[in-house]
Amino acid sequence: MEHAFANPDFLWSSPEPRAAYDVLIVGGGLHGLSTAYHLARNHGVRSVAVLERGWLGGGNAVRNTAIIRSNYLRSESMPLYDFCLTRWEAWADEVGQDIAFSQRGLLNVAHSRAEANAAKRVMYANRLYGIDAEWLEPDDIRRVCPILNLSSDVRYPVVGATLQRRGGIARHDAVVFALARAANSLGVDLLQGYEVTGFTIHRNRVTGVRTTRGDIAAGKVGLVGAGRTPLLAAMAGIEVPVQCYPLQALVSDIVEPILGCVIISGALHVYVSQAHKGELVMGASRDPYHSYAQRGSVHVLEQQLQAALELFPIMSRVHMLRTWAGTVDVTPDASPIVGLTPVDGLFLNCGWGTGGFKATLGSGWLFAHTIAHGAPHVLNARFSLDRFESGALIDEHGAAAVSH
């Protein structure tokens, strides 16, 4: 479980803002930083600034469980998420920084015949698209995860599981550091403590951003403010089909290595992995109410711990160290929005639900392409805002696991 990751001596500079930029990115989380980095790297756009109301990575970037996978169902989603996964596989070497990316495998367990059939449907769809996927019977699961309770004498016995061996985890703060340092090294200005209060729009074209520390002009603006998207979009007069919910998780004290993969149970609403230092990291269902607050409810934690102990009785003596919550954007079809808006020069990246971390590197690549060219990349062309008018939805509620 040991890992060589160490915090770098230098992170990034804190410049004074220019009067104008070619592109302003609103939101200094992982998707925003990734977009700025890829604008500079892939498209040579060096007049770029990231506006963050707090500190870089202070939102959902460090309030998640850092799970990475690409086992989605729809024909639009599978190539998108698998592209994101291939970016994870190449990115540490690209920037020469350790992000503690560990492809330890991801088990999605099924507790009934109906759930098993649905999981197999996803598995076969993945295989048709060249995405690694396997079905495991209980004896096979025992070899992959010996501590999982496979008894039939429980409320929800495990009847099988899908396995994506390329799935895994990364260290979220390491990814923030690497993205911000890489963007900074390419000339991107990282502006912390700049809360957006509005936009300047002339003849339906965005011309700049208003902040708590003054106005900044821009040729193009990208909105990447996960967890606050409806508030930001409303400032530009845009109504988005996004609802925001708290999503919480917890971490235990440090224990010996006992869990060598990631486990997800949709029926029990819990997912568990073991961090590089040894903590057990657990996520659960999102809270049922709309909120922009980064805090969750005690009853969700209680249900989460009950589910984890049913799956892993060995964890009954582990101590919960701390809990946290993020705020997630959820669309009606549980798929993201990455594309243009009705305002010229204003672009939108949101709606990644409870799984935005996995898409970080691919999302930034595709959104940067969309901003630079004024048109979407083929991989995100179907994930447009206007699909909610046309009815061409991309329903990923099952594979996206937005309920937990």
* Helicity level: 25-40%
Q: Structural class from helices and strands?
A: alpha/beta
Q: Please, what is the CATH homologous superfamily of the largest domain?
A: FAD/NAD(P)-binding domain
The first-level CATH class name of the largest domain: Alpha Beta
Give helix and strand order, one letter per element, not per position. Answer: EHEEHEHEHEEHEEEEHEEEEHEEEHHH
Provide the residue-averaged pLDDT.
93
The general outline is: globular
The tally of strands reads: 18
How many helices? The count is 10
Summarize this structure as a short list of keywords or feature phrases.
eight-stranded mixed beta sheet; 2 domains; FAD/NAD(P)-binding domain; D-Amino Acid Oxidase, Chain A, domain 2; 26% strand; 404 residues
Structural summary, described in words:
α1 packs parallel to α5, α1 crosses α8 and α2 packs across α8 (360-373). Helix content is 28%, strand content 26%. β9 (196-202) and β10 (205-211) form a beta hairpin. It has helices at residues 30-43, 77-95, 113-128, 138-144, 172-185, 229-235, 298-311, 360-373, 387-390, 397-400; strands at 20-26, 48-52, 67-68, 106-110, 134-136, 160-164, 168-169, 189-192, 196-202, 205-211, 214-223, 243-254, 262-265, 270-274, 279-284, 320-330, 337-340, 346-350. By secondary structure, it is α/β, with parallel strands linked by helices. It folds into two domains: 20-65 and 172-242 and 332-400, FAD/NAD(P)-binding domain, CATH 3.50.50; 102-167 and 243-330, D-Amino Acid Oxidase, Chain A, domain 2, CATH 3.30.9.10. The mean pLDDT is 93. Strands 1, 2, 8, 9, 10, 11, 17 and 18 form an eight-stranded mixed β-sheet that branches. An eight-stranded mixed β-sheet has the order 5-6-4-13-14-15-12-16. The protein has a two-stranded antiparallel ribbon with strand order 3-7. The chain is globular. The protein contains ten helices and 18 strands.
